[in-house]
What does this fold into?
Amino acid sequence: MYALLVLLILGVAAFWFVLKKKNMDIWFFSYLNNVLSRPKVDGPVHVLFCFVDHFEPQWRNDDLEIERARVDRWFNDYPLMAEQHRDADGEMPKHCFFYPEEEYRHEHLAKLSDMCYRGFGEIEIHLHHDKDTPENFTNVMTNFAHTLHHEHGALPVHPETGQIMYAFIHGNWALDNSLPGGHMCGIDNELPLLKDTGCYVDMTLPSAPSPAQTTKVNSIYYATGVEGGCKAHDNGVDVEVGKAESGDLMLIQGPLGVALKWRTPKGLPRIENSDVRKTMPPLKSRVDQWVNSHIHIKGRPEWVFVKVHTHGTQEADMDTLLGQSRHEMHSYLETKYNDKENYILHYVSAREMYNIAKAAEADKSGDPNLYRDFILPKPSFKPL
It folds into this structure.
């Protein structure tokens, strides 16, 4: 009996050590609760699929010609891939280019805007910053939104307020000063600043295995900033059918969990964090787990939100993101998850995903395709 107790204690200690090593102690038990509380759905499930990209032409590079080659690879090859795929509404996959303010070049955005003008995606805002101030952050975000809108036709304008609006991904996952020591941000209570400068949704998460990962997982929710505090989005209030919005900012998370079917070379389960790249290809088992994570608006479980992410300008990953692996992912989505009986597939941009979430909140039901422009209209974009 004593030996069994010792073995049990050692086993628990070893398990906790593994969780801590991967920062899984932050989110693992919330994930288990999420798995156990997933709702049952009668009738077809509408799968809303959004692919967001931390699109960084200057990644580990200060050579303009390398930047141009990276952008041109997407400009030339993405349309060739996307044109071969359609969802239930006849829409192509929509790639969402979250472009870093600190890497702005007019020529790069002109090409991305042309792609978006032709229906291949939309442009949103990404930012890497450190030791920042609220005043500087406000100026940077406001000015960049103005530039994207007026120079490139990107970003929607709110029909009631006239404000230029944007979706956001924080560089280095450090939303609301959430990394230890305040690294890669520097601003406590960042959420109200985002709201004030026109941010309508944050799509930073999941960030595991980063310590910036939140306790709350696989959720669409509102978070409220805390004066003088950080990582206020660690928890929040679920967006729910028939309930008014609350807090400073909506967050739409991508799937996070433990992948039992996609394992390491040693046979160990992996962390499924929605990242897509050469070393993390979009396998069928991963697509299944994304959908089965069942991220939804509370009270509207038949609309499932799937948001995955990548860093698309890294050369080692481009063949995966623009070639056969990407084709196979979309083909699988268009067969298993678009059979019209069990599933109906909708390719959406970040803006469209937000609009559909707001439509669900407003107690809209049925076909989510009707609500792609529910609040924020499609930007015009500018062709070359």
Remarks:
- The domain at 26-371 is CATH 3.20.20.370 (TIM Barrel).
